[in-house]
Design the sequence.
């Protein structure tokens, strides 16, 4: 079976490709899981300054770009519009499509470069809210690095009188802000001196029986991280964020919450935290993630999509 020749291009100095950065998800996804895939021939190019796309002509089937803008790729990428191989872009946060960079929107930069396909973890409906309807998009989840979640703390040895809420508090996370009003919710930020992020984040999760995964507009990686850590995962799932797309089942592999019911759901757990049903839900959620959402699984999904179009 033919193994497609793929080149991954990124900016060498980009902070997200430092293993010790507070947010190391992309490091593990692109620089650890992608090279582990045996179904491709991979070359990784890390360049800060200038790259000529014509140098890859005849040498690859696909150029996988971390970004089209200088913060994520070389300052200058020449002749990207002149090559015959496929160009696939991690488009990043979809709502930034119209941001002005170097006098042009991100959409303008992509149109000039003649990008063929786009991917990120946002649902399709969110992508097409900001990007042209005729552009081709794949929803590909960034997974968890399995080795970081192999040996987890027993469920019954964890804190049970508090529910952990993590992450930035901003307008994009309406419910994440609201749940902090509950007396039994403890919030740990992702920024500032008190933050615990990156590789140590898995250890923080395992200190608690229950965690909160809340994002109003779309789901984020913490939805799968909390379950991978063996926690009872209170997930914000609504028609707006398309949370059901992830495949979790309410009261079986997680507990779905929204702005109307979260207090009731939290109180039910806090008042009876030793009930075996919570551990059963947590166990089922962890098994689901480990069989569907490790980086090996999500990279395999990306490669599958690539093979379908080359």
Sequence:
């Amino acid at each position: 079976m033919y193994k497609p020749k793929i080149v991954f291009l990124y900016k060498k100095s980009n902070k997200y490709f430092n293993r010790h950065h507070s947010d190391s998800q992309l490091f593990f996804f692109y620089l650890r899981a992608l090279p582990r895939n045996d179904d491709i021939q991979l070359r990784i190019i890390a360049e800060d300054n200038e790259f000529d796309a014509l140098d890859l002509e005849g040498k690859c089937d696909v150029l996988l770009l971390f970004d089209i803008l200088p913060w994520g790729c070389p300052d200058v990428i020449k002749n990207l519009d002149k090559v015959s191989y496929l160009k696939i872009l991690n488009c990043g946060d979809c709502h930034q499509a119209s941001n002005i960079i170097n006098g042009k929107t991100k959409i303008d930069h992509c149109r000039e470069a003649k990008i063929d396909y786009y991917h990120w973890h946002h649902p399709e409906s969110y992508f097409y809210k900001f990007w042209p309807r005729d552009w081709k998009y794949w929803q590909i989840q960034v997974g968890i690095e399995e080795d970081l979640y192999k040996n987890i703390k027993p469920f019954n040895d964890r804190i049970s009188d508090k529910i952990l809420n993590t992450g930035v508090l901003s307008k994009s996370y309406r419910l994440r802000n609201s749940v902090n009003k509950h007396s039994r919710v403890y919030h740990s930020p992702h920024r500032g001196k008190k933050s615990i992020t990156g590789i140590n984040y898995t250890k923080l999760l395992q200190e608690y029986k229950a965690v909160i995964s809340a994002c109003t507009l779309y789901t984020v990686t913490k939805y799968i991280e909390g379950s991978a850590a063996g926690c009872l995962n209170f997930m914000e799932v609504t028609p707006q964020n398309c949370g059901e797309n992830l495949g979790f089942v309410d009261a079986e592999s997680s507990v779905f919450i929204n702005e109307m019911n979260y207090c009731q759901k939290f109180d039910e757990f806090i008042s009876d935290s030793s009930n075996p049903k919570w551990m059963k839900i947590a166990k089922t959620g962890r098994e689901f993630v480990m069989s569907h959402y490790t980086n090996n699984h999500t990279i395999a999904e990306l490669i599958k999509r690539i093979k379908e179009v080359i």
Summary: The longest strand covers residues 5-10. The chain has a mean pLDDT of 94. The chain is about 25% helix and 20% strand. The longest helix spans residues 276-292.
